[in-house]
Structure formats: C-alpha cells, structure tokens
Amino acid sequence: MTNDAPIPLAPDGPSPSVPPLWGRVQVSADPHEAAEALGSDLMEQAHACVASMGDFHLALSGGSTPFPFYQSLMTDPMYRRLPWDRTHLWIVDERRVPFDHPKSNWRQIHEIIVDHSGIPPAQAHPIEAMEQDAAARYERALRAAFSRRAVTEQRLDFVLLGMGDNGHTASLFPQTAALRERKLLVCDCDGPTVTPPARVTMTYPLLNAARSVAVLALGSEKAPMIHRVATGSDDFIALPIKNIRPSGTLVWHLDRASAAPPNG
Ligand code: 6PG
C-alpha cells in the first residue's frame, strides 16, 4: 500500500527562495534563526582555530543588523563557550570619529562585547580613527599579531560583514579608490558615495584572504540589493560587495525577508 499522504510542506510554509549568490546561502526563517545559524558557524570556527593554532582572529562590522547578534553573544549562555580569552577582536571598518562618538563602530562593539566577554584588553584592537595614519597603524597591528603564526595562516579567521543598501560592505563604497587597493590591508575611504564621516576600512586583499567570511543581511529592505547582487550585471565598482570572493568559505546569512525575490 503506497502512502498517499501528501508530502508535508516545510513547517512554516513553502521552502524559502534562495538567491543565486556565490558561496553558501543560508536562508533562515527569521532574524533570530539567522543569528543562531551565524553563531553556530562562529563557534565552530573559533574552536577549530584555537585547537589548531592557539588563537582566533575575529573581525566584526558595525551597523544595525548585527547589533542583536552581538547582544546575544553576551546574553546566550551557549556563547560563554566561545574561547574569548584566546580571541583577537578586530574591526572591519571605522568612521573617523572619536571612540565615544555615537557613530563609532568600536564604541558599539566595545560596549557590547569587549566589556563583557573576557577578551584580554591587549587582544581588543580598535582602529585609532582620529589619527591621520590610522590605516597604517592598523595594518602594522594586524601584521604584528599575524606574525606569530605560520605564513599560510597569517590571516583573519572569521570576518562578519554587512551590506549597505547601495551594495557597499565594510567601508568599501561604490566608485571609490579603496576598491582598487590590492596591496594594503587597510586604507582610507572617502568621497561623494561615502556615507559621512570619512572612513578607514579593511581592503579586499585582507578580507578575501580570510579563512571564513559571513555576510549578514536581514529584512525586506535588503531584498532588492540582494537580488541585484545575485542576478544583476553590475561590476564591483558599482556594487563593492560583488568582489568579496574569499579564498576560504563565504556564507550569506539571510532570512526569508531578505532572500525574497522582487514582487514577493
Ligand atoms: C558600517 C558598517 C557597514 C555596514 C553596512 C550595513 O560602518 O556602517 O561596517 O559596512 O555593515 O552599512 O549596515 P546595516 O547593518 O546598518 O544595514
């Protein structure tokens, strides 16, 4: 007797659409589930790196999307198992404002994570955004921290990126000179397409050398740009996130809303 029972739809309706992006695309039901999936990837990477190299180089972005995730890293008991004491915390980009300015990315990340995680102060690395040579200083700090590793492992281990509504990521903004930087690991970025204030940002050479890159883009307001990045013919000068092509793994952490095709 064949079982004619209809195949049940996924518990919460039809399976979500998956934009044809490069890398792995993880479409979660909602932001909470997306944060859980991202957290699981982060835990896996952190423990693997500490087990094999004794430390973990983590770079985080600013912006509003990751804010709830950063809070969960401090409030969810599961993340107490992250090896914070072996973690070096870097910041993907920074605005040229003082640390106590509302627009400082480090201010947000320091308040939520550095103050509560147990990361040794010497392993919390802000960009000194008010120094004229902030980019060069940060590059020296990165290279000094990496120098303790084998040459093949002198890179970031886990990078969390966001995506702006204009296709920027980090502070790599459309039509800027920073997009053509192929030697420096960190550089300045300013110009008419840059949301003020002027920025300091990690560059493609550093980001694309990373062991693992995660892009967190959630909510319906991200959907048009996700669709355009996935299906459009724009080049990376127009949409800088299109040149995030890491030699390691790339995972897009989306939710149903940000993965939805145009017109629903
Ligand atoms: C910044 C971030 C930036 C951010 C995107 C998305 O300094 O603003 O590093 O790259 O990730 O602008 O920001 P939202 O998450 O707020 O949409």
What is shown here, in short?
The chain is of the alpha/beta class and 264 residues long. The chain is built from 7 helices and 9 strands; from the N terminus they run E-H-E-H-E-E-H-H-E-E-E-H-E-H-E-H. The protein has one domain: 3-Layer(aba) Sandwich (Rossmann fold).
Draw up the topology in text.
Elements: E1 24-28, H1 31-53, E2 56-60, H2 67-75, E3 87-91, E4 93-95, H3 105-117, H4 134-146, E5 158-161, E6 186-189, E7 199-202, H5 204-207, E8 212-217, H6 223-231, E9 249-255, H7 256-259
Parallel strand pairs: 1-9, 2-3, 2-5, 5-8, 8-9
Antiparallel strand pairs: 4-7, 6-7
The protein binds 6-phosphogluconic acid.
6-phosphogluconic acid binds at residues 61-65, 92-93, 105, 162-164, 168-171.
User: Which small molecules are bound?
Assistant: 6-phosphogluconic acid
Q: What is the mean pLDDT?
A: 94
Helix segment tally: 7
Q: What's the SSE pattern?
A: EHEHEEHHEEEHEHEH
Whole-number total of structural domains: 1
Low-confidence runs: none
How would you classify the helix and strand content by structural class? alpha/beta
Quick one: how many beta strands? 9
Beta strand %: 15-25%
